[in-house]
Write a structure and sequence with these properties.
Layout: E1 2-6, H1 13-27, E2 32-36, H2 50-54, H3 63-72, E3 75-81, H4 89-104, E4 113-120, H5 127-140, E5 144-145, E6 157-160, H6 165-169, H7 172-192
Parallel strand pairs: 1-2, 1-3, 3-4, 4-5, 4-6
């Protein structure tokens, strides 16, 4: 199963792009699951070390269904709007809360394949730093980070929304980066997935 995590609290550009990516994977016969932070209660990590002692997070919120989806996934796609040149606060909370997943089982994410999607209001609005944050999360957790490769999708799928849903729908270059990144993602799933 491929898990798509949408880090936007709004039903706008980021959600649209992620759903298109998951639809493209489904067209290739892959099972997908969509998770959105919109309307969810996901508190930030307190770094209290409860998870190290008890093998679960002390915070009982909407992160628990996501933990189960992350365990089951062979591939992960994190999609984020760009906030101040990085990932959204909601995606950062998810990344930090995965500490409890690693405390439960150090290898819980190891060997899965991961890619990123970043949607910015400007063409050069921080998409690449946001993708680097996603890749860093993957590397620290043993997930194999993939991009679309050189010549257009160096770190992953980058979109320019012009701060509108219509803007992202018209970003043909962004969809080119998505197709390249999904192509590499599928290749790694076929050869490296758990």
């Amino acid at each position: 199963m491929i898990l798509g995590i949408c880090g936007s609290p709004r039903r706008q550009a980021t959600e649209h792009v992620l759903k298109r990516a998951l639809s493209m994977l489904e067209d290739d016969g892959l099972e997908t699951e969509f998770f959105t932070v919109r309307g969810k209660n996901i508190s930030p990590c307190r770094h209290c070390d409860y998870c190290l002692r008890n093998k679960e997070c002390v915070l009982k919120d909407d992160m628990f269904p996501l933990y189960e989806l992350l365990r089951r996934a062979a591939g992960i796609i994190i999609a984020t709007p760009v906030y101040n040149g990085g990932v959204s606060a909601q995606i950062k909370a998810i990344m930090d809360r995965c500490r409890a997943l690693g405390a439960e089982d150090y290898d819980s994410l190891r060997g899965k394949v991961g890619m990123g999607i970043a949607v910015g209001g400007d063409r050069c609005g921080g998409q690449e730093p946001a993708l680097m944050q996603i890749h860093t999360f993957y590397i620290l957790n043993g997930v194999i980070p993939v991009s679309g490769g050189s010549f257009g999708a160096n770190l992953g799928a980058c979109f320019w929304s012009r701060d509108t849903l219509e803007g992202v729908k018209e970003d043909s270059y962004g969809f080119k980066t998505l197709k390249k990144t999904l192509g590499m993602f599928k290749r790694f799933l076929d050869s490296e997935g758990p």
